[in-house]
Amino acid sequence: MITLSINGEKHIIDVSPEMPLLWAIRDIIGLTGTKYGCGKGLCGSCKVLLDNSPVQSCIIPISAAQGKEILTIEGESKNLQLLQESWVELNVPQCGFCQPGQLIAATALLDKNENPSDTEIDDAMIGNICRCGTYQRIKKAINRTVQLKKQS
Amino acid sequence: MNTIKNISRRGFVKSIGLASGGLILACNTSIFSDKEIKPENLINFNPNLFVQLNSDGSLTLVASRSEMGNGVRTSLPSIIADEMDADWTRVSVKQGTGDSKYGDQNTDGSRSIRYLFDPMRKMGAMAKSMLITAASQKWQVPTNECSAENHFILHSSGKKIGFGDLVEIAKTLKTPDENSLTFKDPKDYKYIGKHLRSVDAEDYVLGKATFGIDKKIPNMKYVAIERCPVTFGTVKSFDKTEALKIPGVEKIIEIPRIERPFGALGGVAVIASNTWAAFKGKEALKIEWNLKDNQNYNSDKYMNEITKNVHKNGKVIKDKGNINKAFKDASKIIESTFQLPHLIHAPMEVPTATAWVQGDKCEVWASTQTPQSARKEVVEYLKTTEDKVTINVTLLGGGFGRKSKPDYVIEAVIASKLIGAPAQVVWTREDEIKHGYYHTVSAQYLKASLNKKGKVTGWLHRFALPSISSTFVSGVEYASSGESGAATNLPFNIENHKVEIGKAPAHVRIGWLRSVINIPHGFAINVFADELAYEAKKDPLEFRLNLIGEDRILMPKAKIKFNTARLKNVLKIAAKNAEWDKELPNGHAFGLAVHYSFFSYVASIVEVSLINGKVKVHNIFTVIDCGIVVNRDTVIAQMEGAAMFGLSLTYYGKITAKDGAIEQGNFHDYKILRINEAPKIHVEIVESTENPSGVGEPGVPVIAPAIVNAIFKLNGKRYYNLPLTDHDLV
């Protein structure tokens, strides 16, 4: 038995401790906002926050997530919510599939850096592929969020 | 029961003819099939297949095409809503299942708006007309004293009534004759031509959107399939011992190959209680394969073969003027050979489908671009009838043409039938890259003559590439005439023009990939034209405008005309926006390309730098003329996305085969552009009242040649083959 704490809720699951966190979240617990894209930690579609740090859940075994707080796209966090609003406002998503991972990566960035430069945005988001090519809008949405936070 | 009769009577839109000839709305008897007439529907007003107005005023509009980032779930319903004078905030969108009653649903070829703009307007106009009639009856006034505005019918006296309050009367009315419908003046459009946010935007960012891979059904099994590394190889034998030891793996079965264009490749399937177990089980299988004919496919060697085939005479498909004389009389001859590799789609969501076969019935949930083809394939495989097969279309996590081929749907149906439970087939990323329908590999040879004044007098274009037709008909060894595209319909004013096709048999499945044949042709033509400008010692922009020449209509018999004035116009605007003549920082240069595809005109000017031997694209100025625009924001987004797609293939796109097996497998060796490499994209849309034309694809073909043309200015080298990583430039 392994206990996972996801978005503030405890889940006790009976699967192999080697199972990647991604598949436990999606197939066992049933939260499908976290996506499979590559299975090798190459594309960022599966990103979640593990104790506030972004990780690629497709390569993290659940044994390594036990005892830690996991935040997925379905969860609540101040920066995530502000970013989601900007994403909608600027109509960032095209197909939308990679966007949960993009938003988690951006949340992790703003959690640590209130005023990221363009290079810092690139560095934080480089692990997230968007095949539709929404990068320009992603950058704008992050910058918009930063500006709104400054004004408030 | 009276209402059911009336609903049945309403299905009368027999046929709506279209300029593009594509759509027949066959709903002669009933708009909804019997099973869809549920008690709750009886309170609704369903004037046609696409519109359902409820008595509380809420309005459900059907999107018949697949949403894959192309924005159709927003744009198509917005056309209906605009023509109906409905309030967009009262609209919810329902996804149509795969059913010929909706007309052509094949979401590819950049044609959703092109085909459906007029039919959707008719759907809206019809609903509005009936609501006006309903109000006129209620008020006992002539219809011409009534009008519609923002979900209300207004009377000239000033009174008004909400759409929802007219449902009771409207649903008893006969549908108006199609020829009696009136349409809004385009200047009164409220949604068409404006920016509309995606109806799915919030679901996307909250993680609530349901893609194919997100479908869950009780007792559903997860399925991963190991397929032969060589295309069309088959299973000789397999050992499942180790795979069955993996916790969660329940069963191993063989999936037969279905020898149809969209049939299953066949292989060994792992049935498991979760996706990870299915993937692990697949890795643990030991399989012996019959590799068959394609095992000798080596893409390097193949490139040499097809290159040889364009260096000798091919099948002539166009011969205008006298090319030999032009070459003989030339003051200068220029020749170049272009080579482009296979590409694969790599949508972020891998091919996934869920099927539940129960007896002769089957329900499918799939991220598919072509639900009717999927339905047809399922009917064929199960030897059942269409009414027993339901294809639900989920959101697509990208398509790019991959999901136009429902082979993975059939795999899910086979698996469900064999195990007697709902089955979800999920491809791994490696499966997606190694077992796809590849964008064709190509060799092209271009030869041109210049006279003393630097005018192009002759143009020979010879190409060899495995045809998409080879996927449908075995033994095809030459490209089809449809794949001659811009090579034949060259928009340049050249007296002598010859096009030939060289032999190129296929050894993998060849399929459509975003902008398809326009990738090789757009690349070769745009790079070669730039080369000619240099040889003629002319500015590339001025030279190109002259090469296109006087304003004229090409392909005059086509229903949508190819107007060279519009082609020059997009190029001129792009040059103006980029400030083509301005001085750029040291190490920076502009490159241009302009291309007509999917009936749209696109030009891009790229600003590129070459610093320490590495290429960086800083700005892309794209201009599109796609006729009438429905959702401006979608057109801009598609141009932004197409530029990134074009950049990915320019920098990294290359699929190779060794001994018949694809060598790439994931994003480390099939790279996709990342955020730090993304330039700024500046998009301008030409204002137009022409018929709407393609948007999803035409932004792609211009990117690679524009970049290559810019690099030439920086280092004097012309790169005739891609990707740029092969030249160590990225």
Please give a quick description of this structure.
Chain A is of the alpha+beta class.
Please supply descriptive tags for the structure shown above.
heterodimer; A: alpha+beta; Ubiquitin-like (UB roll); DNA polymerase, domain 1; 42% helix; 14% strand; globular; B: alpha+beta; Aldehyde Oxidoreductase, domain 4; five-stranded mixed beta sheet; disordered N terminus
* Nearest-integer average pLDDT of chain B: 93
SS-derived structural category of chain A: alpha+beta
Can you count the beta strands of chain B? 29
Helix content estimate of chain B: 25-40%
CATH superfamily of the largest domain in chain A: [2Fe-2S]-binding domain
Rg of chain A, please?
Answer: 15 Å
Q: Numbering strands along the chain, what is their spatial order in the largest sheet of chain A?
A: 2-1-5-3-4
Q: Say how many strands of chain A there are.
A: 5
What is the N-to-C order of secondary-structure elements of chain A (H for helix, E for strand)? EEHEEHEHHHH
Report the sheet with the most strands of chain A, covering strand number, pairing sense and barrel closure.
5 strands, mixed
The CATH superfamily label of the largest domain in chain B reads: Aldehyde oxidase/xanthine dehydrogenase, molybdopterin binding domain
> What's the number of helices of chain B?
19
Question: Which residue ranges of chain B are poorly predicted, with pLDDT under 50 across at least 5 consecutive positions?
Answer: 1-42
Amino- and carboxy-terminal Cα gap of chain A: 45 Å
Q: Would you identify the CATH architecture of the largest domain in chain A?
A: Orthogonal Bundle
CATH top level assignment of the largest domain in chain A: Mainly Alpha
Oligomeric state, counting identical vs distinct chains? heterodimer
